[in-house]
Specification:
Blueprint (H helix, E strand, L loop, with lengths): L1 E3 L2 H17 L6 H15 L4 H13 L9 H4 L7 H7 L2 H9 L9 H6 L20 H16 L10 H10 L7 H12 L9 E3 L2 E2 L1 E2 L6 E2 L10 E3 L5 E8 L2 E10 L9 H9 L4 E3 L1
Antiparallel strand pairs: 1-9, 2-3, 4-5, 6-7, 7-8
Helix pairs in contact: 1-11, 2-3, 2-8, 2-10, 3-8, 8-9, 9-10
Bound molecules: fe (ii) ion (FE2).
Amino acid sequence: MKVDLDKGLLKSLLIFGAIIEARDAYTGGHVWRVAQYAERIAKSSGLSEQQVFKAFLGGLIHDIGKVAVPDSILNKPGKLTDDEYEIMRAHPVTGRKILISHPLAPLVLDAIGHHHERVDGHGYPEKIPEANLSMPALIVSIADAFDAMTSTRPYRAGMEAAKAIYILQKNRSSQFDERFVDVLVGLFDTDKLNGVIGHSDESRPMLSCPACGPIITVPRHKEAGDTVHCHSCKAEFELHKDNDFFDIEFTKNKLLTATPEIDVEQIEAMAERAPKQIEL
Ligand SMILES: [Fe+2]
């Protein structure tokens, strides 16, 4: 059923992406990057505008279930116990339960519920084989894995993109869909992922808190002279800009009430370029 895409409803969905982001300061920009990779894979695969948008949206919302995973597990610096792993692995099912009654849920439920399935049927939570996995789930799974490997975590530095590409290729046809892996490799080889790898938004390279390490994302409306805060240690920094490069300088202030900012401009921009109509 093709329906007019209600911008207000769409924005409410996009805000879920910002909520996921706010939970995890260490992977600042993760959902934006996954959405970008997913969109580029879908576009380069020749899919329709609607399908490309579904891949993008799936990338943005896929980890919504992680809001129910305790911080102690989500940010644990080290191996999870069996019980903790079980709680973590529940996030695709939890995510579906959270969004199931949203009027636009059909656009994202597959990406949420199936992004940890594997094409060989050994993934979780349902061990669904490739034949029964839909495009958004297959693409988001690859985009998510690529960003997880190339992003810095509290307990390990991000991997070189070329090595992550090698690992994806090694696991094509067992964990990941062959065709979509090949498309991502093509994008990487032709430098079409520049501006996404190592970024938290368009023209916003990732910055790391010099005091404690997590990523400080720079919202679209922030420019040189504005202040930004580390969501982890709450330190305040003044933003400097030199051409395309941002830098931050500690202002010697800490704002204990500093909370992650929802990047309203980013959400507006995403909603603006959505298709006018979509198949639900
Ligand atoms: Fe996930």
